[in-house]
Specification:
Strand content: 15-25%
Distance between the termini: 90 Å
Largest sheet: 8 strands, mixed
Order of helices and strands: HEEHHHEEEEEHEEHE
CATH superfamily of the largest domain: L,D-transpeptidase catalytic domain-like
Number of strands: 10
Strand order of the largest sheet: 5-4-3-10-6-7-8-9
Structural class: alpha+beta
Shape: elongated
Number of helices: 6
CATH class of the largest domain: Mainly Beta
Radius of gyration: 26 Å
CATH topology of the largest domain: L,D-transpeptidase catalytic domain-like
């Protein structure tokens, strides 16, 4: 009789452990933020899909995880609203995250055509916005070296921002790349650096081409630009 009870207990224990392990495996970590100290779990994704009644996730899982990351920050981070402000609920956090996701994905490329003095914000080759721009004093041709007054040509990334810029706001262009550096080095020159997309110094109206090789927008256009373009967006600059 004792052996039978012991055997039954052993079977139940194994079943319980297997069930726990199975649940742990199912609820895997999809994203972990080590700075803000939160995670997006498989169970969070399952909850969101059920909440939005989504059955087809083909090719969209990364987008849903991005939405959940944004919602989690609002729900759990130290930057959540203070008690005297409107309470953040799961529903409101998800709605805000979805709206932010749509806005972030309205533009996926910036195209600059120097000869036209135009900048185009694109979404899959479709023009979303058009701005007039100013360049440096010697804008024709590829940038060769520091101080030549030219704006580089090629495909780059808007890799960081300067919020306290003297020119209203700045997005850094990832110039020089390896090709740019090698070209300058072959001629014994410095390729140059700190090429930006920026606004106008202190809001003053400037002459047609007034930068040192950067791409300038009016402050009004720069304010609009940063509503649609985000860090890590590709920028292509043509002659």
């Amino acid at each position: 009789m004792k052996k039978s009870k012991l055997w039954s207990f052993t079977i139940l224990s194994i079943f319980f452990l297997n069930a726990c392990q199975s649940n742990a495996q199912q609820d895997k970590v999809l994203f972990r933020d080590t700075v803000l100290k939160y995670s997006v779990m498989q169970s969070d994704l399952d909850k969101y899909l059920t909440y939005r009644n989504i059955t087809d996730t083909a090719g969209k899982t990364k987008d849903y995880i991005w939405i959940l990351k944004s919602a989690m920050v609002r729900l759990h981070s130290k930057w959540a609203p203070l008690p005297n402000k409107k309470q953040v609920t799961y529903e409101s956090a998800i709605a805000d995250a979805e709206a932010w996701f749509i806005k972030r994905n309205m533009v996926n490329k910036v195209l600059v055509v120097k000869s036209e003095r135009k900048m185009y914000l694109l979404k899959d080759s479709n023009i979303v916005k058009t701005y007039s721009i100013a360049l440096g004093p010697n804008p024709v041709g590829q940038k060769e070296y520091e101080g030549d007054g030219k704006t580089p040509e090629g495909i780059y990334t808007l890799d960081w921002q300067k919020w306290n810029s003297t020119t209203f706001h700045s997005f850094h262009i990832s110039y020089p790349n390896k090709i740019d550096s090698a070209r300058a080095k072959a001629k014994g020159l410095q390729a140059g650096s700190n090429i930006m997309v920026h606004g106008t110094s202190k809001g003053f109206k400037q002459k047609k081409d007034w930068t040192n090789g950067c791409i300038a927008l009016s402050n009004k256009d720069m304010a609009d630009f940063r509503n649609f373009v985000f860090q890590d967006t590709q920028i292509e600059i043509k002659k």
